[in-house]
């Protein structure tokens, strides 16, 4: 999804929730400012759907919650809220909230030209403040290429790069999948 700052006076979190309920589109909320989330490409949408479907099927009967791009994440210990393309939480504290989750173990962002730098930089800096987060997946929508940021046992983030023929291992939810499962049938604009 593509974010664009709205021309709205700074809001409190409570005012943001009330204001957003009246809007036709979703908005992320960062440091009192709101950012409209416009739609992405066909590939972007199909990739996000593939991940949520795979996660939901894999996690059936586990008590974990699979989120799509309509589920907000509260950035831990802040009043900031984002809409990732897909997420998973297995934390019991998230089972009692209705407007957002706070403790995802896995977040997926499908990249676009306008958001890639933010998804890799500022957004990841916010997300990784959360000790529950174990895997952060950045997914190209133009070529068969996925980067996985994984928190190791000592709390350091390592990056794993996946390409055609690779198997992605998401330790946070104990799932391995062929990268081709995500990209099957898509019209890609760049060579893999």
From TrEMBL:
Matching CDD domains: DUF820-like (cd06260)
Residue ranges of every copy of the Putative restriction endonuclease domain listed in the record: 14-178
InterPro entries: Nuclease_put_TT1808, Restrct_endonuc-II-like, Uma2
PANTHER family, alphabetized: GLR1098 PROTEIN (PTHR36558), RESTRICTION ENDONUCLEASE DOMAIN-CONTAINING PROTEIN-RELATED (PTHR36558:SF1)
Protein name in UniProt: Putative restriction endonuclease domain-containing protein
Organism: Acaryochloris thomasi RCC1774
Upper taxonomic lineage: Bacteria, Bacillati, Cyanobacteriota, Cyanophyceae, Acaryochloridales
